[in-house]
Design a protein that fits this description.
By secondary structure, the chain is mainly β. The chain has 3 helices and 13 strands.
Amino acid sequence: MQRIKLTHLIFVLAIAALAGACKTPKKVSAIPNAKSPYPLMVGTFNSAQQAEEDSDFFNITLHMYPIWENENGNWLYVEQAMTSRQEKPYRVRVYKVEKVGAGEYRSVVYKLKNQDRFIGKWKDPAFFNGFDESILEEREGCAVYLTNTEKDVYEGATKDKTCSSTLREASYAHSTVRIEKDRIISLDQGFDKDGNVVWGPTKGGYIFVKVDPTAN
């Protein structure tokens, strides 16, 4: 009888081991293109045209490319730099785009720990597969909330006075964003405790035109 029980136990363990070996990670589908700002954010953009027409604006390049595509969520690795100095970006971030309601989305902003090792990896997004979310540090209060206002258009901003900033004696930062099919209009500003602008453009947002023909 004990021999029969032992044989049965071995059989059960073998089946369990086989099931574990055959199990594949669950792939979470991306948010449908027609109902998300995520695919519109993918690509390389620059403000060259705006800078040429108005000297108050710099020629800036923005790279945003998908990472961790098989994981839960819609992640983008982001670099922003003067076009003439793309090897030295002044902003290195990861965004996670989440649906929060009907036609409502949130782009959560993260800094990267030891960010220098990731610079330029927008060209090789698979590099991030060797890492997990432990490399990220959320910028609390700096998420951008977006609403689908018309076809292929999303507009939104950060919450009021929730995104802290100490740059140039600022107290907080505020961002407004408009995402269209072929461009992103972004206004980032820093304010002191009295509500005065201490950094960022005062004439309006940067107009980043999509220049990567392979992106959606």
